[in-house]
Amino acid sequence: MESDSITTSEAAMILGMSTRRVRALVGTGQLMPLGRMGPLWVLDRRQVVARSRQSAANKGWSPTAHTGRRWSERTAWAAISLLDSRDSGLEPPALSRLRRRMDGIDVDRLAWLAGGRARLQTFEGLAGDAAYLRQEILASGLQALSDGAGSGPSGVVSFGHDVDGYVSDGRLPGLIAKYSLSPTPAGPFKIRTVTSERFAWLQANGVPKTAVALDMLDDGAPRTRSQAERLLLERIAGLTRKA
User: What pLDDT shows up at residue 54?
Assistant: First the structure.
């Protein structure tokens, strides 16, 4: 049975909008949270699903609701590579189409479209295991950015006992068993799974800073989100200048 409590990231997936917009709905009382888990809001799944059904029946209730399909994992990482001035791996026609789609894109839309880059799952585990788990994933999030991760794996991925990073989807079950991880909404251990091929690419090339910034948008702290938005806006502006 699905848990009745979900994170803002999970609510964003259900509602088809960004986590920033979900937090705005909470702030204006349009979504009533169950409470907080650390810095993050925890929401009632049933209320969010009802809101989603309402939006389907009454289009236009949210001015920032997103339509259309998200990018595939391959396209999402190609866009991230473009913003990091890396080789996208796309053929010229596909690259040209992606550049046109990204022309004038805003952070909110970028975060939505690139949501398929990985599957985010949150867990609880022993605080003492955090440092060991960090050694088995590729760093992302706030500390990854401040420590200069993006050039390769890092042993420190966030403050305190938090964990945030990437692992191949085939490796996750072993980590869950090894560290007795329990799936928990807004848990302090954020693990982002990608295909084995993508994980090998990340190992070889490092986690792009654009991806790190996108992952920072999942953080509950306004200062962290603002830092991520500034970095992403700089990357988007740089891409526009090169076009």
Answer: 61
